[in-house]
Backbone:
């Protein structure tokens, strides 16, 4: 009944039963068999492209000059690491991801607290709130760009007055606001699940002992919510770091490189400049960066599971 | 359990009457409406005439017309919707067929290194699609499979597989081990156990996993925009034409945006509970 944060990898599955040596191999393979199709498919479709990327990253290959393809070793990496556009893209990716994740977690926390009480129409309010997350991201980006931010007939200027050109004056903020609008419901849902899994007895006991609302919140609720906040932030980062739709639609990375993030920059290098070697090297750099961040993230996930196991 | 819950709700009910509680209720409604406002605006604008759509101050009251929708269908959105439907449904089916046995081998009858395998799957989800785009593009082009809906089906299957494995595993772990042991003692074969005991219990989990996979495939844009064109274009691709539109097009845009968002919005509204569990990879129940 109660909602709990439980266990992706939490409880250890039933241990293999010991068997005589001959049957053991057969047993191992019968255990593996159901896993193999998925594993092989995942390896084929996700790992082979990365090997190809590695190979391509050592080539000087611009698709506009098909004849001149040659091995250049690590030259593409030198190019990529010293490229100011790419460094700008890296900064923009961090700003965009961190901004959107932090804002949507904080907003989501506030809204989850509002919804963690019974009130007339709670189900309807919840339904209204999750809708932004369900709107197709591409449609949402178009809607904000044209129907909301437009200086002449957009909704913001229509309601507040003025003729601010939101997208060209505040490009990063415009992109982040759209993403926050879409991701706050997601954070709210996860945090709400956390709030509802709190033990009411402990909360009552704290109140009986004379703890104020703020004390209860900071001393009991927030520590309890920590794994939920971490999970929300982690999943949000995984998706938001790959933001493409909103940048592609709202700003096209501009003005200049003001909102060009790594996915969009690599897209430009590949399909606008046709610098295949450079794009591949940039891709490898992104993968290495992601591995570093992901190792940290996986540690967070694992610690969540250990916490669950200890409970 | 029940006692705790009823005590809790009684506590809430008594607080509801106070003015402070009323303020919180109003605030919650205001926030809900504020977040919904852009969606409402999108739906309303889709039913306007173009001159009303681009008015300042905004037009809130108008006679609804279907011009926007008619124009969207005149521009042939139907094939895009059908491509999306095909890519999303088939990839979801393939994901379930691959992920469910894999999840079984990571939970109920686990392989020795189940933990490593599980983290391998999730790590493929963390690798940015952008880094794989170029080789995928070149390989797909080499095999003459650009702008082919089957390419998208394969890629979406790979994209959603890790998520589905994690979700299905968390659902399978909920099957009481005693039940499976009892079936084995009664001499039931593995297939009978799966069909009679596992499937009925994890059916809601399968539905939740299918919903999440469907949503992610339906909304996917990055791979679609780079690998498809007119023949296999999915519904977000239909929207690309609106990015730099000039002149009166807002009603048409909003009609198209509403139309392509509708399947996922409806599915998400109906299955709110499963949505939470699915989005958190099964970690939040």
Residues:
């Amino acid at each position: 009944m109660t909602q709990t944060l439980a266990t992706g990898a939490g409880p250890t599955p039933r241990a293999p039963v010991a068997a005589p040596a001959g049957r053991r191999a057969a047993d191992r393979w019968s255990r593996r068999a159901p896993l193999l199709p998925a594993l092989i498919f995942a390896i084929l479709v996700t790992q082979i492209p990365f090997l190809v990327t590695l190979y391509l990253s050592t080539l000087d290959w611009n698709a506009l000059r098909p004849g001149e393809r040659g091995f250049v070793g690590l030259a593409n990496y030198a190019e990529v690491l010293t490229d100011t556009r790419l460094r700008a893209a890296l900064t923009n990716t961090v700003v965009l991801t961190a901004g959107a994740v932090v804002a949507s977690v904080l907003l989501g926390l506030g809204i989850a607290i509002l919804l963690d009480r019974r009130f007339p129409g709670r189900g309807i309010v919840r339904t209204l709130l999750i809708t932004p997350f369900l709107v197709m991201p591409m449609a949402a980006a178009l809607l904000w760009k044209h129907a909301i931010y437009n200086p002449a007939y957009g909704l913001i200027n229509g309601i507040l007055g003025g003729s601010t050109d939101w997208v060209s004056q505040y490009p990063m903020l415009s992109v982040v606001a759209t993403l926050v609008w879409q991701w706050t419901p997601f954070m709210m849902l996860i945090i709400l699940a956390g709030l509802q899994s709190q033990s009411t007895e402990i909360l009552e006991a704290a109140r009986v002992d004379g703890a104020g609302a703020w004390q209860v919140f900071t001393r009991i609720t927030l520590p309890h919510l920590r794994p939920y906040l971490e999970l929300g932030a982690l999943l949000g980062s995984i998706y938001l770091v790959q933001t493409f739709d909103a940048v592609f639609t709202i700003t096209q990375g501009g003005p200049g490189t003001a909102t060009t993030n790594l996915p969009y920059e690599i897209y430009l290098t590949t399909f606008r400049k046709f610098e295949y070697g450079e794009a591949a090297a940039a891709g490898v750099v992104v993968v290495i960066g992601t591995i570093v961040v992901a190792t940290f993230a996986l540690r967070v996930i694992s610690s969540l599971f250990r916490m669950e196991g200890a409970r | 359990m029940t006692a705790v819950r009823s005590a809790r709700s009684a506590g809430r009910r008594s607080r509801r009457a106070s003015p402070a509680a009323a303020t919180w209720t109003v605030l919650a409604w205001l926030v809900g409406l504020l977040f919904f406002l852009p969606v409402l605006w999108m739906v309303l604008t889709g039913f306007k005439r173009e001159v009303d759509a681009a008015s300042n101050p905004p037009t809130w009251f108008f006679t609804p017309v279907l011009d926007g929708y008619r124009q969207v269908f005149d521009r042939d959105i139907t094939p895009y919707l059908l491509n999306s439907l095909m890519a999303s449904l088939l990839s979801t089916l393939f994901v379930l067929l691959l992920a469910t046995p894999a999840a079984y081998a990571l939970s109920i009858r686990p392989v020795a290194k189940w933990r490593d395998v599980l983290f391998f799957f999730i790590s493929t989800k963390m690798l940015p699609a952008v880094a794989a785009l170029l080789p995928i593009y070149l390989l797909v082009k080499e095999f003459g499979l650009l702008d082919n809906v089957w390419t998208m089906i394969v890629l979406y299957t790979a994209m959603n597989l890790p998520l589905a494995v994690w979700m299905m595993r968390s659902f399978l772990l909920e099957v009481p081990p005693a039940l499976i042991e009892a079936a084995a003692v009664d001499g039931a074969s593995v297939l009978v156990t799966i069909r009679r005991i596992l499937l009925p219990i994890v059916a809601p989990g399968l539905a939740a996993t299918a919903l999440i996979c469907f949503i992610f495939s339906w909304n996917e844009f990055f791979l679609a925009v780079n690998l498809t064109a007119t023949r296999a274009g999915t519904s977000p691709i239909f929207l690309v034409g609106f990015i730099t539109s000039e002149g009166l097009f807002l009603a048409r845009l909003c009609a198209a945006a509403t139309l392509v968002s509708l399947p996922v919005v409806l599915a998400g509204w109906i299955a709110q509970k499963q949505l939470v569990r699915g989005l958190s990879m099964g970690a939040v129940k």
